[in-house]
Structures are given as structure tokens and as C-alpha cells.
Design the sequence.
């Protein structure tokens, strides 16, 4: 998985997408509104989740190389009836905690991650890259809940597709269906070609063989479809539909 953004770029994008989430929540009159893309969560619970995520990965990076995830104490300041300003202040503090930990570590300090079975290196740089995507997708969740969905910025989405392939596909295990080739084609000009076999998912170069199915769209549309935030749009699908549906539901994102 080729790194396309600098470490400082990644830190800036974590801050930017986390701020986008908070901006959306700040404009909502109801923190208990359900999040359509995460129906088990209210908007308040979505923010609490992101707070927990940022604090967890800050601790993981600060702990350095480890075979076990860090033990993180619950946020004692949290409350179900927190005022919106209190909730958003805690979110901003958690984001800052993550950024401080990442900046102190630099881009190459080993740490525990959950993607040890993939080819993605387990270090602070990979954590930063993944946290850009987590913040971006959850910012979209918040925007969707407040009726203000916006595309994921192209620079984030393009890197996010490659990151998703490396981490989510890299830990998904064997492809449980007939071997297939899938193409992902972003309108920004980038494409990814994947061979799916009992060995898992593998990025390949174009050797002239047609893909069994393909998905077209903006980088934002592709990324959000991969993450299950947008449904499969027939107008953007090409080839064998069942194979494409299997592809989109294959990695367990729960």
C-alpha cells in the first residue's frame, strides 16, 4: 500500500475531518437524533464513539511496540446529559490528545494495531492514515444525521480507497466466493484492480483481462460505498451484480 500523503498532511486531515464532524453536530438542535448510516447510534453516541477512538489510538501510539491493545480508562467527564458545548469540547480535547501522541511519536514508531494479519505496517504512520479515514467517514455520518451530507474531500477519499484495500481487505481473510476480478474507477483519474481468490484480495496491474465487475464514481462515492455509507448505485455499477454485492459486503466492518 503506497503512502501518498506526508505524515504532517495526515495529522492536518485528522484535525480537519474531526472539526467537520463537530461543526455538523454543533448545528444540530437534537443530539439524540438517529444516525441513518449507523442506526444503532444517536448523534451523541457517534461523537462519544469518536472520542473513545481518538483516546484509544493516542494511548496505543504512546505505548509504543506492544502485542496487546492499551488499557484506556473511561472518560470520567462524559455524561448522557452533557450539554452540546461540553460534548464538543471533549471531542476537541480527544482529537488534540491523538494529534499530540502522533506528533510526539513521529511516523515510524511501532505500536499495537488490529491489522497485524495484513501487509500494512503496524506503526504510528499507519495509525495516522487510518484515523484520517475514520474521522472522514464519521464526519459524513454526522452530516447525514443533520441533513447536511457533503462529499469526502478528494485528497482524503483517494488515499482512503487505497487504505481500505490494504487494511480492511488485508484482514478479511480468504474470498469466500468464486474467484473474481473487480475494478474501482474514480472520476478523478485513479483506478484500482483487485483479484479476489481463496488467498484474499490482491492489487494487480492491468494485464488486459476484463474485470468481472466494476464500480465507477467520484473518489468520495467509491469510498463511502466501500464503507457501507452509500448503497450500490446501479448507474455506477458494471458487470456481474451479485459479485459486486458480495465484494461490498465481504469485509466485516462491524
Sequence:
Amino acid at each position: 500500500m503506497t503512502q501518498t500523503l506526508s505524515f504532517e498532511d495526515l495529522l492536518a486531515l485528522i484535525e480537519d475531518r474531526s472539526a467537520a464532524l463537530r461543526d455538523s453536530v454543533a448545528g444540530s438542535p437534537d443530539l439524540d437524533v438517529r444516525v441513518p448510516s449507523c442506526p444503532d447510534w444517536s448523534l451523541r453516541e457517534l461523537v462519544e464513539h469518536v472520542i473513545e477512538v481518538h483516546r484509544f489510538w493516542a494511548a496505543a501510539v504512546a505505548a509504543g511496540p506492544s502485542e496487546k491493545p492499551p488499557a484506556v480508562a473511561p472518560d470520567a467527564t462524559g455524561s448522557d446529559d452533557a450539554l452540546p458545548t461540553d460534548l464538543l469540547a471533549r471531542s476537541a480535547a480527544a482529537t488534540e490528545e491523538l494529534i499530540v501522541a502522533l506528533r510526539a511519536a513521529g511516523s515510524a514508531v511501532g505500536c499495537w494495531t488490529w491489522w497485524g494479519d495484513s501487509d500494512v505496517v503496524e506503526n504510528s504512520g499507519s495509525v495516522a492514515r487510518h484515523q484520517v479515514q475514520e474521522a472522514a467517514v464519521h464526519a459524513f455520518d454526522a452530516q447525514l444525521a443533520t441533513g447536511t451530507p457533503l462529499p469526502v474531500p478528494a485528497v482524503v477519499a483517494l488515499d482512503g480507497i487505497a487504505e481500505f484495500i490494504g487494511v480492511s481487505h488485508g484482514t478479511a481473510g480468504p474470498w469466500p466466493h468464486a474467484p473474481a476480478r473487480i475494478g474501482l474507477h474514480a472520476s478523478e483519474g485513479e483506478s484500482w484492480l483487485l483479484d479476489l481468490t481463496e488467498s484474499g484480495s490482491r492489487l494487480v496491474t492491468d494485464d488486459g483481462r476484463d474485470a468481472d465487475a466494476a464500480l465507477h464514481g467520484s473518489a468520495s462515492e467509491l469510498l463511502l460505498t466501500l464503507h457501507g455509507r452509500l448503497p450500490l448505485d446501479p448507474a455506477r455499477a458494471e458487470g456481474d451484480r451479485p459479485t459486486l454485492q458480495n465484494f461490498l459486503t465481504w469485509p466485516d466492518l462491524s
